[in-house]
Design goal:
Aspartate Aminotransferase, domain 1, 56 residues, 14% strand, 2 strands
Length: 56
């Protein structure tokens, strides 16, 4: 989530004990006030960070 935040995407990590060990997640909040450009920028950030971390 830190790397996403550096790209202007606010995403909260969901980690143990909220979820079982080894099943961490990232939660984002999308609202009607986000534009199509905002969503595109967020998706690009997820893609960049995912590739950097080797998860996609």
């Amino acid at each position: 989530s830190r790397r996403l935040f550096e790209r202007n995407v606010f995403a909260m990590p969901i980690v143990f004990p909220t979820v079982p060990r080894g099943t961490a997640r990232i939660r984002v909040m999308i609202s009607a006030s986000h534009s199509a450009a905002d969503l595109e920028q967020g998706l690009e950030a997820f893609q960049q960070v995912g590739k950097e971390l080797g998860v996609i």
